[in-house]
Every structure is written in structure tokens, then in C-alpha cells.
Amino acid sequence: MRAVVLPGIRQALVVEDDFPEPTLPEGKGEVIEITACGVCHSDLHVVDGDFPSPLPLVLGHEVTGVHPELGPVLLYAPWGCGACPQCADGDEMICANSSEAGLFTNGGYCDRMWVPDRKYLAPLDGLDPITAAPLACGGLTAYRAVDHGRTTLAPMRRQGRVLLIGVGGLGQYAIRYLQLLTDAKVIALDLAEDKRSRALALGADEAIGPDEDIAPCDLIIDFIGSDVTLATAAGAVARKGLVIVVGLGGGQTNFGLGKVPPEARFMTSFWGTR
After folding, report:
1. What gap in Å lies between CA 32 and CA 65, rounded to an integer?
2. Where do runs of H (alpha helix) occur along 77-164?
3. Sign of CA dihedral 91, 57, 35, 115
4. How many degrees, rounded to 5, is the angle at CA 202 between CA 201 and CA 203?
5. E-strand spans in 133-232?
6. 3-class DSSP state for residue 114?
7. CA distance 40 to 247
8. Looking at domain 3-133, which of 3.40.50.720, 2.30.30.60, 3.40.50.1820, 3.90.180.10 is its CATH number?
9. What is the enclosing helix (H) or strand (E) of 47?
């Protein structure tokens, strides 16, 4: 079968026409025919050697495909060990021994791929397989961050203020989720004017650049995670507010009493559950 293989760090992808067909180890698992596979920024981290991914590797974890019995399906790519406390709680994406498709085991840039269990396949129910491919990655990641944030917004006796730092794909999902699930005022912050315009078109109440003043915000979701954006978040979070870091920008910020407003909290959010 055909597969697109990353042979080594920062090397060009190679299209192989005779890549080995997936097999069922000890008769376990499923094989799906790939329909579509998106490109995630995590794929670029693998290319750059930021993750301890085994190479060569078939990338791609934003996958839709066809299962011989289930029909069109969406792949959930974080596959946990099934034996740790996190897996027992349903949080496979933070399993210390997880094996994410396309990041640590062969993924979806190929004709067919192996999936360890049918539970990782969700029927598409009529969704377009191309536009749906990122839902279990970008869509799920943004949803989990918003869902974490709702615990801060829900008890408020006023309209909350939410700042989204970085409104690319994840940030745009977050705008829509916040509209559907909260009554908060949504402020989108981005360097790029076209992304700010897109954020307004999707329903953000305001769209600002990084040099503009920001009134204190009850919930801040940082989809970049750099030193600069974390400093922005620390400076904009309200008393008793929550900062959720999603982006893999590798940044750091000072945190502690006197460093941030009273009872402000910082946390990370990673991927999402099935």
C-alpha cells in the first residue's frame, strides 16, 4: 500500500508505494481504510524532533476512514495502556504509557491503518469525512479547554469575560463552543489581522492585537503557550480567574502569591477524552 513516511528528524517526507500492510497482532484490533487525514501542528513537532517519536514513522492522527462493519468513522488517536489510574478514569490522553497514532506509532498518512480497539472509532453519522477529520484532535482539544473553563464561569452572577490567545484552528473552535455553552463575552487576541477578522465573523465580541489594553478576564485560554503569551495571560487574568494553557509553545511565567492576582489559577489542558 501507499504511505507517506518521515525517515528522520527534519527530513523530507517520502512516499512509499510498497509499505507493508497493517496486520492484527495476535488477531487483535481493527483495520480501517483511510479517507482523510489532517495536518496538526503536533506533526511538525515530530518532524522537528521535539517529541521522542520512533523514526521512521507514518505521521497523521486527524483521521477519518471506513471500517468494514461500522462504515465511515472518526479516529480517536490517544491510545492508553488500559491499566493505569488515568486510563481507569477515562483520561487515556494523559496516560504515561499512551501510544498516540501518528506520533508514537504509525498513523493515517497511508491507505490503511491498524487501530487497537473498535472503541477508538466513532461513527461519522453523515458528517463530511474531510471537514470532520480534525474533530477528534483540534475540535476535542478546544472543547476540553472550554469545558474546564466552564467551572469558573458557571458560578458567576454576572457575564464572564473570556480571552482567547491565538485564534487559529483551535481558537476558532473555542469561539463556537463558548457561544453554544456559555453567555460569556469573548475577546480574541491574535497577531494576524485576518484571524481577528475571522474571529469576529465566527461570533467573538471583540478582536484585538497584542499591543492593545486588556481589562481583567475571568477565563483565559492560551492556545500558543509562549513566554510572551503566558506573560500576557498573567497580566490579564482577573482575581479568582483561571488561565488554561493549551499551546505547546514551551513558555514559562512567574506564578505565586504576589505574582498574580489573588486566587488566580493556572492549569494545562491536553487533548480530550473519548
Report:
1. 6
2. 85-88, 129-132, 140-153
3. negative
4. 90
5. 161-165, 185-189, 206-208, 217-222
6. strand
7. 12
8. 3.90.180.10
9. helix 41-47
Residue listed under C-alpha cell 481558537: 171
What residue spans in the chain does CATH classification 3.40.50.720 cover?
138-268
- Fold classification of 138-268 is Rossmann fold (3.40.50)
Q: Which amino acid is at 260?
A: V
Q: How far, in Å, are 86, 103, 113, 178, 239 from residue 192 at the CA level?
A: 38, 29, 37, 21, 29
Return the closest-CA partner of residue 146 out of 87, 223, 202, 82: 223
How far is Cα 96 from Cα 106, in angstroms, rounded to an integer?
A: 19
Reading the chain (274 residues) residue by residue, the pLDDT tens digits are: 999 999 999 999 999 999 999 999 988 999 999 999 999 999 999 999 999 999 999 999 999 999 999 999 999 999 999 999 999 999 999 999 999 999 999 999 999 999 999 999 999 999 999 999 999 999 999 999 999 999 999 999 999 999 999 999 999 999 999 999 999 999 999 999 999 999 999 999 999 999 999 999 999 999 999 999 999 999 999 999 999 999 999 999 988 898 999 999 999 999 999 9
